[in-house]
Structure formats: structure tokens, C-alpha cells
Design a protein that fits this description.
There is one protein chain. By secondary structure, this protein is of the alpha/beta class. About 35% of the residues lie in helices and about 15% in strands. Helix 3 links the parallel strand 2 and strand 3. Helix 10 crosses helix 11. The two termini are about 35 Å apart.
């Protein structure tokens, strides 16, 4: 017995992916056609553009209409909610009106005021309503920065983030090694289990210190979630693209073994590739699909209709194993 394995990428719109011609067929030249083609190959995806700008409900509705029943979207949390700086000029007018006058024209703004953070979270939750109504809402992904280390205040902030999302499940990814030391790892995993927050197993370069998080496969809810960033250590701490990394077959097999081991007790396991540049993620996801014995087609109509990810979390165990573009933000 085991759960369902869903495999996808962390963007379907990365510019070099589109320009490379490595994934999309010749006729897929519009945002609508690209997402439709992507959804014919995979049954889940992450939305990256929401990190930079809260999407409009109209754009979210378009994502719903371009994908089949049972397809799941995971949405990267707006940058301010994970402690990253934002461009205030990309905020909705209602949120811009809450800023101090001196902040309006800045290109790089750190937001710490609880009232403003909650308003941003509420705007994101409201925008995602079409996904929830269509039962296509997966997780809101909270990818915390490398300076977000283990401490009591940050544990409390995880709960705060869960509260902000008003019932949408969240999954958290840590980028600092302090969460995984022998003193803290077990406490961190126990905290997430207690508060029903999904832990993300991330794969990223290792430097023998705490500057990155180690690969530590685990699950703290009924969902196991892998995010694979590549192992390009030479560019990880530089301005060069770190997501241009092609996993080799031996590496994919190692990750697949860990994923299938967790999937023995998980209801669902997500394996998401974030090495998006030049089509690396799409190619590796297709290879991983074959390694895990996943079918080529998206889920059949009717599967996952009972409430998106919440239905997946509550369902009995199955028996079988961004980026913006042009004038229309794709994902």
C-alpha cells in the first residue's frame, strides 16, 4: 500500500524554458496553450509569480480554466510574508495606500508591520478563491530565506503564517542548516507535526556548513513534499543562475528511493523540480515520472474533486503507487 505520487515543476513559464524549445511544442505559443500542454504532461505545478506580485483573481480563474479536473496548484507565498523585500510598486492599490509616503517609490522594501502583513496575506487568500472553489488548491509554499534560522520566535512565526492563510494548507521550506542540527532537528519536526504544518524536503548544494539546508527526507503530515533545486554549488552564492542544473540518473534514482519510502505511509507525495532554467526541471520531472512508474496522462476526471489538497489529506490511501511574461502574467 502506498500513496499517490505527483510530479511537477516549480514554474511552467520560466523564460529560458520557453526560449529553449526543449519542452513546449511549436504550436504552444500563448500562455493558455503552454499551461494546457503542461497540464497534459503533469498533474501539479508551483506558481512562482505570486512571490513577486499577488495575482489577480481573474488570472487565477484563468489558471483554473486552462487545467483539467484534479490538477493541483501550489502557490509560493508573497515575498513579504517570508521576510524578503518587495517592490511596493507592484502592490495592489489598496495595499499601496497603507504604505508610508516615503515607501511608495522604493524599489526594495522590507515590510514588518503586522497590520500590513496581514492585509497582504488576506489579499493573497482572496485571490486564490477560484482555486479553492475548483478544488485545485494545493499548498501555499513558504520558502524562508537563509537568514531565517532556528529560534523560538521563528517557530512562533510558522504558526502565525498558518493563521494568516485562513485554512489554506501551508508547507514550509528552510534554507538555513540550524534547523537540522542534532540539537534542533527533532524539535523542529515535532513542532511541525504538532501544528499540522507540512515539512518540505529540499535538495540544494552542500558546503559543509550551515549556509544551506541538508537533504533530510521526512514528512510531518499525511503529505510528503520534495523541492529539488539542483546541486550547482559554484553559482549558489553568486549572481550566476543557480537553477541551471540537470540531475543525473543516479541522483534521480537516489531521490526516487527516498520519495517512495516516504510514500509508503504518506497519502500523497509531491516531487517538484525547481531547477527550471533551460528546461532542466521539465526534463528531470519527466525522467522522475518514469522512475516512479507514474502514468503519462493527468488525473482522470473526478479525481481529487472533493476539496483539493484537503480532500487528498483526508482521503483513504490509494492503491497505486515564475515568473512573469509579457503583458500577461502566466505563473
Amino acid at each position: 500500500m502506498g500513496g499517490k505520487i505527483r510530479i511537477g515543476t516549480c514554474s511552467w513559464t520560466e523564460n529560458s524554458l520557453i526560449e529553449s524549445g526543449a519542452f513546449y511544442p511549436h504550436g504552444a505559443s500563448t500562455p493558455k496553450a503552454r499551461l494546457k500542454f503542461y497540464a497534459s504532461q503533469f498533474d501539479t505545478v508551483e506558481i512562482e509569480s505570486s512571490y513577486y506580485q499577488i495575482p489577480s483573481s481573474e488570472m487565477v480563474q484563468a489558471w483554473v480554466e486552462r487545467t483539467p479536473p484534479g490538477f493541483l496548484f501550489h502557490v509560493k507565498a508573497f515575498a513579504a510574508l517570508t521576510g524578503h523585500n518587495i517592490d511596493p510598486r507592484r502592490l495592489q492599490q489598496e495595499l499601496r495606500a497603507m504604505l508610508a509616503p516615503g515607501d511608495l517609490e522604493r524599489e526594495d522594501l522590507h515590510v514588518a508591520e503586522p497590520v500590513l502583513l496581514r492585509a497582504m496575506a488576506q489579499a493573497l487568500v482572496a485571490a486564490l478563491a477560484p482555486l479553492r472553489q475548483a478544488h485545485k488548491m494545493g499548498f501555499v509554499i513558504f520558502q524562508f530565506p537563509p537568514w531565517f534560522g532556528y529560534k523560538k520566535a521563528n517557530l512562533d512565526y510558522l504558526n502565525y503564517c498558518k493563521d494568516l492563510m485562513a485554512g489554506i494548507p501551508i508547507a514550509v521550506e528552510f534554507r538555513h542548516g540550524s534547523w537540522f542540527t542534532s540539537q534542533h532537528r527533532d524539535d523542529m519536526l515535532a513542532f511541525l507535526k504538532e501544528h499540522k504544518i507540512t515539512y518540505i524536503t529540499c535538495d540544494e548544494p552542500q558546503f559543509g556548513n550551515l549556509s544551506t539546508a541538508p537533504f533530510h527526507p521526512a514528512a510531518t503530515t499525511g503529505i510528503a513534499y520534495f523541492r529539488l533545486h539542483g546541486r550547482n554549488g559554484d553559482s549558489w552564492h553568486s549572481d550566476a543562475p543557480a537553477d541551471e542544473y540537470m540531475y543525473q540518473e543516479s541522483e534521480l534514482k537516489e531521490i526516487a528511493r527516498d520519495a517512495m519510502r516516504l510514500n509508503e505511509t504518506a497519502r500523497t507525495t509531491f516531487i517538484m523540480f525547481n531547477n527550471c532554467r533551460s528546461g532542466c526541471a521539465a526534463r528531470n520531472a519527466l525522467e522522475m515520472r518514469d522512475l516512479c512508474g507514474r502514468p503519462h496522462s493527468p488525473p482522470p476526471e473526478g479525481e481529487g474533486q472533493g476539496g483539493g489538497l484537503r480532500a487528498v489529506q483526508a482521503a483513504p490511501l490509494p492503491t497505486s503507487p515564475l515568473r512573469g511574461e509579457g503583458h500577461e502574467v502566466e505563473g
